[in-house]
Amino acid sequence: MSAQKKDLRPGENVLSNQLKQIRLRLLFLIVAFMSVFVIIQIRLIDIMLLQSDRLGNSGHIYAMEGADRGKILDAHGNVIATTLVTASLYANPKMILDPSDAAKKLIETFPDLKFQTVYKKLTADKGFVWLKRNLSPQDQQRIIELGLPGLDFQYEKKRIYPQGNLFSHVIGVTDIDGNGTAGIEKQFDHILKDPNQQVQLSLSLPIQHILHDELKESIHKFRAKGGSAMVISLKTGQVLGMVSAPDFDPNIPQTMDAQNAFNRNTLGVYELGSIMKLLNTALFLQHGKGDINTIFDATHPLKIGRFSVKDYRGQYRPLTVEEIFFHSSNIGSALMALSIGPEKQMAFLREIGLFDKPSIELPEKGKPLVPSKLSKASCITIAFGHGLAATPIQFMQSITNLFNGTPLPLTLLQKSSLTQKNDSSNELFSTKNKSALCHLLQKTLEEGTAKKAKVQGYLIGGKTGTAEKVEKGRYVKNGKNLTSFLGVFPINNPEYLVCATLDEPQAIEGTYGFTAGGWNAAPLGGNIISRVAPMLGVEPTFE
Amino acid sequence: MRRLTLWILGSSIVLATGLFQLKHQVVRMEDELMRIIDEINEEKKHLHILEAEWGHLSNPVYLQKLVGKHLPSWNPLHPTQLIPLKAVPFRERPLSIPDSLFESLSGGTK
Predict the structure, then answer these.
(1) What's the sign of the alpha-carbon dihedral A294, A300, A305, A311?
(2) Is residue A452 less than 8 Å (CB to CB) from chain B?
(3) Taking the CA of residue A501 as centre, how many other CA atoms within 13 Å lie in the half-sphere pointing to its CB?
C-alpha cells in the first residue's frame, strides 16, 4: 500500500501540475478574452455615446458640399448674390460622327452660335473644344435630348447676381477663384467663404431700384457725368439704399472699369458746397452765441487777403441766421463761423464725426481732406463748404449723429444696427437746436433754394449745395459743378435722410441757363422722396 | 469553471453577433445617409437655381419694362393717392349680408 502510495505520489504531482497549467492557461485565455471584450465595449460606448456629435457633424459637413460661397440677401430676403453650379458644353471632335449635322443641331438649340464657328470647332484636330459656357438647366436638357456622341459637360461654379446693376458698387465682385475683390464680397469674404453662412444687408431692393431709376433719369436729363443717391434711416443708422452712377453689371466683369467701379458715395471725396451750411448753423446754435434771429451784416463782401467772399444771390443787407440759411449767404455763414473761431469749429466737426473713419462696412472708403493749418481763412471757407472735402457717406454720418443727438454709426447690415446703438448720455446736439435746424430746413424746402424738391402731402426739410469742382488745384469756373441735395423727412419727426448728388449737370430747357443744385439735384431728391416715402410707410398729411 | 467557460463562450457569441448586426446596420445607415445627403445637395442646387431665377424674374428693372409694355397706363404710386388707415370710413354693415338676416339676429339693428 505504501509502495503504491509512493508510486502514485509522483503521478499525482504530475496531474496537479498539469491541472495547474490548464487553469493558468484558462485564466490567461479568460483574461485575454475579457480584455478584448472590454476593449470592444469601451469602443462601443465611445462610438455610441461620446462621439455621436462628431459623426453627426461629419454628415453635416458632407451635406454642404456643392455650394462654395454664402449668399448675400437684401433687407427683405431677396437674393442679390448666390453661387450656382452650371454646366459648360464641350466637344471631343475626334468622337463626333457627323460634324455638319451636329453643328446644324447645335445652332438650332443656340441661335446665338454661328454655323461656321461651330463646324470649325467640331472638325478641329483636338481632343477638347469649348462650345458654350454656363448653360441654363433647360439648355443642358435640350443638349442631352439631342443625343449627340462626342458632346459632354463640365461643371463649374459661377457667382450670380440676379439684380444686375442695382447693387453693383455695394456688393462688389469675386475673382475667378471665388475670392471677394471688392465691396461686400471683399469685406465679408471670411464669412461668405462658408457656404452655410449668409450676409443680409439693410439695403432694400425696391428702394435701390427707385434710386437707380431716378438717378439714371436725372443724369440723362441734365447730361451729367455721373451722380449718387442714398437713403438712410435716422433712427437705426441703416443705409436703406445706395446707388452710384456710372455703374457696372457684376455678372459681366468686362463692364467693370476704373470709372464704373468707383463708388461716389464712399470713395468720392468732394466739397459739398452749401450743404455744409447745415453743419455751420448747427455749430453756431450749439455754442449758444445766439439763435436763429441773431443778425450778421452781409451788406459787403468779406475780404480775406486778396480774395473776397461774395454771395451767389446777394441780399446786401444785415441778415438773421434764418435768412442766412434760407438765402444760402456765404458772407453770413462766414461771419457766423468767425464768431465761434477756427479751433472750436474744427472741434465741433470732429465731435460730430466728420473726420472719423467711416463705419460703413465697405473696403472702398475715402479719407476726408482737412486743412493742414487752422486759420481765419480756413474757418471762413469751411463755413460755406469749401476747403474741406469728405465723402457723401461721411457727411451723412455727421448729419445722422446731429439728428440722433448721440453718435450712431451708419451700417449696411440688417442686424448689427441694433447692437451698435449707443446710449451715450453725452449729447452732441440739443433737442431745441435740432428743432431750430428742422425749421430752417423746412423753410428752405418750401420757399427757398430747395423748393423743387417739394412733394405734395409730405413734410420735408431740405438744403441744396453747388460746389465748383477742383481741377489741378484750382476751382473751375466754367460751370463744372458738383450739385447736391440733402432731404430730411418727415421734418416734424425726422426719420429718413436722402442725399443726392449730380456731377457736372448741364443747363437745359427750363433751367434758364442755371446749373445750381436747386435746378437739378433738388428735383431729383423730390422724385426720390415721393416714391420712397409711401414705401417706408410714412403717412402723407394733407391740410 | 465549466459554467464560466460556457458563459464567456455564450456571451462572446451573442456579442459577436450583436457587433456584426450593428456593423451592418451602421453600413446600411451610412449608405442611407449618403443617399439623403446626395438628395439634399441636389435639392439645394435646384433651390439655388430657382432662387436665382426668381431673382431675375422679380428684378424691378425687368418688371418695370414689362409694365411699360403691357400696362402702359400704369404709373408709380403718387402720395396723393394715399390716405391714412384711420381716414378710411367703416362701412355701416357688410353689403353681402341681406337685411333680413341682419334683422333676425338678436340685438341687430337696421
Answers:
(1) positive
(2) no
(3) 35
Where residue A290 falls (left for φ over 0; alpha for ψ -120 to 50; beta otherwise) is left
Any chain B CB within 8 A of the CB of A168? Answer: no
Asked if A488 contacts A462 with a C-beta cutoff of 8 angstroms, the reply is: yes
Chain A residues with CB inside 8 Å of B31's CB?
none
pLDDT in tens, chain A (543 residues): 444 444 556 677 888 888 899 999 999 999 998 898 888 888 878 776 776 555 554 444 444 444 578 999 999 999 999 988 888 899 999 999 899 999 999 999 898 889 999 999 999 888 899 998 888 888 899 999 999 999 999 988 889 999 999 999 999 999 878 889 999 999 999 999 988 889 999 999 999 999 999 999 999 999 999 999 999 999 999 999 999 999 999 998 888 888 899 999 999 988 878 889 999 999 999 888 888 888 898 888 888 877 788 777 767 788 899 989 888 888 999 999 999 988 999 999 988 888 887 889 999 999 888 888 888 888 888 988 888 899 999 999 999 998 988 888 999 998 754 444 455 556 778 888 889 999 999 999 988 888 889 888 899 999 999 888 777 767 767 678 899 999 999 999 999 999 999 999 988 888 877 888 888 999 999 999 999 998 898 888 876
Q: Min CA distance, A59 vs chain B (Å)? A: 8
Lookup result for grid cell 349680408: B97
Top residue of A28, A43, A46, A62 to mutate, by most chain B CBs within 10 Å, is A62
Instruction: Answer whether A82 touches B (CB < 8 Å).
Output: yes
Q: What is the ipTM of this complex?
A: 0.72
A288 burial class (0-12, 13-18, 19+ CB within 10 angstroms)? Answer: exposed
Contact A475, A507 (CB under 8 A): no
Contact yes or no for B51 and A85 at CB 8 A: no
Specify whether the CB–CB gap between B29 and A51 falls below 8 A: no
Interface of B with A (CB under 8 A): 1, 4-5, 8, 11-12, 15, 19, 22, 33-34, 37, 40-41, 44-45, 48-49, 51-56, 58-61, 64, 76-80, 82-84
pTM: 0.79
Nearest to A298 by CA among A284, A308, A290: A308
Smallest CA–CA distance from B9 into chain A, residue: A33
Contacts of B51 in chain A (CB under 8 A): 71, 79, 82, 162
Q: Which residues in chain B are closer than 8 Å to A542, comparing Cβ atoms?
A: 80
How many Å apart are CA A518 and CA A251, to the nearest integer? Answer: 36
Q: Which residues of B touch A455 (CB under 8 A)?
A: 79
**Which residue among B8, B52, B76 places its CB closest to the CB of A79?**
B52
Q: Do A40 and B15 touch (CB under 8 A)?
A: yes
